[in-house]
Amino acid sequence: MRKNVAALMLLSSGATHCAQAFVQSYTKTLPVRRQPSWTIQRAVNDESGNEAASKKIKNRRATKGKAKASKTKRSSSASNDTESEELFHWRHPDDPLVLFRAGDTEEPESSRLAHESHDNGEPLLVRFRIRGRPRPLQRHRTSRGFMYNPSYKFQTSFRSLVHDMFFTGMDNNGVIVDDGDCEDLPPMFAPDKSLAVTIAFRMKRPKKHFVGSKQESGRLREKDSCQITLSKTDVDNLAKFVLDSLIGVMYEDDRQIISLHVTKLFDNDDACLGSTEVCIRVVNDQENLDRLLERSFHLF
What residue ranges do the domains of the chain occupy? Predict the structure, then answer.
């Protein structure tokens, strides 16, 4: 009995070994299952995409930091420019300031307390020059349902200076010496007067026109000394700025202007920061009109 059991155990163990050997030999003969090429490529793409994405995020963060720094720098420089440009217009003591009235024999050198001249004679000619970069009149814009004038602060500065020169006491240095109540005074020229206007815009020169960093008329480069300019600012928009600013100060309505002659050129005086020179004269008879037409078509 014991011999039979031992024989059976040997048979079972031999069968197990034979089965294991068969399985091993069979698995060796099976083909190796490879991963499809598209899955390998996808994994490679995912890995490279992750690297590219991480690089992109790093670049974005660096760019964001630089943009923030440049924005802060621009805001600080803009605030400095705003502070430096608070005075948009001013008057130089050597600039012409003329108020010619009916009965005057010669043009005065300057007009002081010019509002008193309304009683002395009818104004026939006004001439003045204002320093500051000439600016065009911008179109009205709409923001959040409201319409506003982008040129308002510049026009207010220009108009206020003209008003102070002719309707308020001002000495030769441009300092107000008598701030009287002149707000209710009528415009310089009556509403029934026809006017001829001549304007010369001396444009601010760019820094590249100068030798070195100091802006002076004596440091202009020889090739840039010419005063003829092809700047982007349209001459008609420059004229609109002045004509619109002088309403209520020099005339009641700009429809009174029947003749307009405008010249745009580079500034060659002092620091070449720009200026606006205006001459307004009354055209009161046919003789003046004929002379005006003759001069207009015979400039050269």
Answer: 97-296
Q: How many CB atoms lie within 10 A of CB 201?
A: 27
Show the CA angle centred on residue 249, arms to residues 117 and 180, nearest 5°.
60
Q: Which CATH architecture has domain 97-296?
A: 2-Layer Sandwich (3.30)
- Confidence check: pLDDT of 72 > 80: no
For the stretch 157-209, pLDDT in tens is: 999 999 988 887 555 554 544 545 556 678 999 999 999 999 999 998 887 77
In degrees and rounded to multiples of 5, residue 89 shows phi and psi of -140, 145
Q: Given this model, what pLDDT does residue 197 score?
A: 95
**Structure pTM?**
0.64
Residue 110, pLDDT above cutoff 50? no
Contacts of 130 (CB under 8 A, 6+ apart): 89, 90, 91, 95, 158, 161, 162, 275, 276, 277, 278
Under a CB-based contact definition with an 8 Å cutoff, are residues 123 and 101 in contact?
yes
Residue carrying the six token digits 């300019």: 229
Is the CA virtual torsion 231, 246, 251, 102 positive or negative? Answer: negative
**Residues 136, 234 contacting (CB under 8 angstroms):** yes
**DSSP codes, 155-221:** HHHHHHHHHHHHHSEE-TTS-EEE----TTPPPSS-TT--EEEEEEEEEPPPGGGBSSS---GGGB-
Q: What local confidence, expressed as pLDDT, does residue 82 receive?
A: 46
Asked if residue 157 lies in contact with residue 99, where contact means CB atoms within 8 angstroms, the answer is no
Q: How confident is the model at residue 117 (pLDDT cuts 50, 70, 90)?
A: very low
Helix count (H) and strand count (E) of the chain?
5, 9
C-alpha to C-alpha distance for 49 and 69, rounded to whole angstroms:
30
Give the tokens for residue 229.
Answer: 């300019």
124-143: per-residue pLDDT in tens? 999 999 999 999 998 888 88
CA 55 to chain centre: 37
